[in-house]
Design brief:
Elements lengths: L3 H15 L2 E2 L1 E3 L8 H4 L3 E2 L1 E5 L2 E5 L5 E5 L5 E6 L11 E4 L3 E6 L3 E5 L1 H10 L11 H8 L5 H4 L11 H11 L12 H14 L4 E2 L2 E2 L38 E5 L2 E5 L7
Antiparallel strand pairs: 1-3, 2-8, 4-5, 5-6, 6-10, 7-9, 8-9, 11-12, 13-14
The chain binds a DNA duplex (13 and 13 nucleotides) through helix 1, helix 6 and strand 12.
Amino acid sequence: MPEGNEIHRWAEMHAGMFAGRKVRVDSPQGRFTDAAALDGRVLKGVRAVGKHLGYDFGRTGIVHVHMGLYGDFSEGRQPMPEPRGALRMRLWDKRHWLELRGPTDCSLWSEEEWQTLLARLGPDPLNGDEPAKMIERIGKRRTAIGALLMDQSIVSGLGNIYRAELLFRAGVSPFRAGAEVEAKKLEGIWKDACALMPDGMVDRRIVTTRPKDRPHGKGEAMDEEVHYVYRRTGRPCLLCGKKVETQVMAGRNLFWCPGCQAE
DNA sequence: TAGAAATGTTTAG
DNA sequence: TAAACCTTTCTAT
């Protein structure tokens, strides 16, 4: 499900619910084998970098959570619902509960392991980082910019929706080599990400269209167009009317407008 | 009921 | 480059 914006949102929300509190932890599904070691301990805080979350239990360690494609949280006020489906981890206290399903990873890490993770990630637009390293790394590569934006060691937190939509908004073809994209353009893409990502969600969907570009005025279709190109294959571009195209790049479906993003 | 797809990453070949 | 892995949800038969 998530790209970096939702990861950071979860970190803030879960810290608000549980930071500084003694929490209960279990794993109804049984696959999070370190749950018992954390049960009854104090959650000190929740970290977020790129698409990674870290639930900090101090000397006991850090629960590293990576959502992969399908991972999802649900949370709420007590009473906690009965376990349903494949429930990897639950965390709760007297007031709140949260459930984690389907993550690629949910395991207890040391501080050292967390630092190793930080070392291999590129700058994160949601962590107040500077774009210099991203621009430098992209400038050295012949690889297509559409693939480079998905590489977490170049820039962290972007996923398939943001790669398509940021490139569209910048008017850059995803097929252009990294080295052929001007540094000014890259800086603009970074700034756009910093502006878009913090409050990029409506109804659990990422929204990247500017209000003036959304068709409106008639009935239900209002506000339906939340993306310019993502998953709009064969439909007319909201700006130029040409048909949106799709092709697999970096193992994922890439979407672009051949008019607005000419090579 | 089966199958495909989904905002992702790692490992193998 | 391809396959494997995690799980739910929506569509087609």
